[in-house]
Design brief:
By secondary structure, this protein is of the alpha+beta class. It is 39% helix and 13% strand. The chain contains eight helices and eleven strands. Helix 5 packs antiparallel against helix 7 and helix 6 (151-164) packs across helix 8 (207-223). The radius of gyration is 31 Å and the shape is rod-shaped.
């Protein structure tokens, strides 16, 4: 049970009474100064809440459980609301707001967030679902899809399709890096790598446009399996 404030505060009457010390103050500033500095109240005064607790343990329990105190224990910073603490944790500690796991840098956090994405892409060759189109493509390239499609199939289909379409996403089929980004000309060995690049927003290429293009490329191929 929370004990009442040990400093009675009445701003209308300019009445400020410290119960433990039985002292009356005529100004709030005087009462606060007493609560802050009196040895008998060491560790009992909450500055944010204007509350004098009966003990240091009581103050600690208050700070731990009150919505008015949101503490980063790593930095020993007390925020007045959860939103500010959350912003601090993300910006300073690269903390995931979904699972509260922390990472060494922003890039690692950004990569981790992908595990929390909803499953929105059904595999073109089986009934598995993926959170990203590039992950679905990697699944196909790996040869683990029950459709039997593998990396060679994906490469051949894309080269055939865009070779005829003036090579929007492709280099020459004999090149080590067979695929390229139409927006920035970065080159890739695998279609999945190209799609990961586009999804990362590293350039101006629109992901939805790329997904539409590759769906068109693969649609009739999978219908024929």
């Amino acid at each position: 049970m929370v004990r009442p404030n040990q400093l009675e505060i009445d701003h209308d009457e300019n009445h400020y009474f410290c119960f433990p010390c039985q002292r009356l103050f005529s100004s709030f500033s005087g009462a606060v100064n007493h609560c802050r500095h009196a040895a008998t109240h060491a560790g009992e005064w909450c500055e944010r809440c204007d509350w004098l607790f009966v003990s240091q343990d009581a103050l600690h329990m208050h700070v731990t459980n009150s919505a008015c105190h949101n503490i980063c224990h790593s930095c020993n910073i007390d925020y007045s609301n959860w939103s500010d603490l959350n912003v601090h944790n993300v910006n300073v500690h690269h903390e995931c707001t979904e699972c509260n796991e922390r990472f060494v840098n922003e890039n690692n956090l950004r990569e981790h967030k992908r595990v929390h994405l909803p499953l929105k892409y059904e595999c073109l060759g089986c009934d598995r679902w993926f959170s990203e189109f590039s992950a679905m493509m990697l699944h196909l390239e790996s040869g683990n899809c029950e459709s039997g499609v593998d990396c060679d199939d994906i490469d051949d289909w894309v080269i055939d399709y865009w070779g005829f379409k003036f090579g929007d996403y492709t280099n020459d089929w004999t090149d080590y890096y067979k695929f390229c980004c139409p927006s920035c000309d970065n080159e890739f060995r695998f279609v999945s790598g190209l799609l990961q690049h586009i999804a990362s927003q590293a350039c101006d290429m629109d992901l939805d446009e790329a997904i539409e293009d590759f769906n068109a490329c693969f649609a009739w191929r999978f219908c024929c399996l």
